[in-house]
Amino acid sequence: MSRIILKSKRTTLVxxxxxxxxxxxxxxxxxxxxxxxxxxxxxxxxIFWWVVALPFFVLGLRSLTRITQTNPELKLLLALxxxxxxxxxxxxxxxxxxxxAHPTGTGLGAVLFGPLAMSVLGSLVLLFQALLLAHGGLxxxxxxxxxxxxxxxxxxxxxxNLTMRLSGKQRIAIFLAAAxxxxxxxxxxxxxxxxxxxxxxxxxxxxxxxxAGIFAITQIPLAISEGLLTVLVWNWLQSxxxxxxxxxxxxxxxxxSNEPI
Length: 261
Description:
Elements: H1 2-26, H2 43-70, H3 75-89, E1 93-94, E2 100-101, H4 106-113, H5 115-132, H6 141-166, H7 170-196, H8 203-240, H9 242-247
Antiparallel strand pairs: 1-2
Transmembrane segments: 12-33, 45-64, 76-93, 113-134, 141-160, 172-199, 211-237
Subcellular location: Cell inner membrane; Cell membrane
InterPro entries: CbiM, CbiM/NikMN
C-alpha cells in the first residue's frame, strides 16, 4: 500500500512539473520585465557580476550533487522547486514607466534545499528564460543570477531560520522568507542598475531611488501574494510529501502508537 501511495505522489509531482513547463514554453512571447535585458549593462559591470556569481554556482553544483547522492528520492522535489521558480518568475505584470514586475519563486527552494542549491536552479531558470522567452539576457545572466538566484535565496534561508528561532511558527516563517526574498531581489536589481547608471545629479543614491521606485508600486503586493502562494504550496507538500520533508528535517513525523485499538 505504501508503495502505491509513494508512486502516486511521484506521478503527481511529475505531472505538475511537465504541465508547468509546457504552459510556459507554449506561451513564449517576448517579455521585457525585471531581469536586466541583453546588452543593457556596460561590459565592465556585466563581467563583474559574472565573476561574482560563478563561485556560488560552482558551490551550488557541489551542494546539489551531495543532496542527490545522499537522498536520490529528493530529485523530484528538486525538480518541483525549479518548476515553481520557472513558473512564478515568468509571470509578468505591468509596472510604471513601461516596465514590468513578477514574482521570483526562489524562497520555497531555498527553505527546502538551502541557498546554494537554488543558486544553480535559479540560474538555470534564468538561462532558459533568456533563451526561450527573451526574458533577460546572456551577457546580463551573471547580474540577474546574483539578484534572483543568489541574494534572494540567501535572504529567504536566513529569514526562515531566524523567524523559526524567534517564533517557532513555520507558516509565518515560510511567508516572510518568500515575500522578503522577492523584495530583496528587486532591491539588488535596483542597486545593480544604479551602480551601472549613476544619475548626473545625485549619483548612485538618486539613481537607486529612481530604479527602486519603478518597481516598488507593483512589487510589494506581488511579494505578499508570492508569500501566500508559497504557504499554500508548503501546505500541499506537508500533506503529500511528508517523508521528503522529514528527510530534509523540516517536519517531524508523529510517532505511531503501538497500543492496540
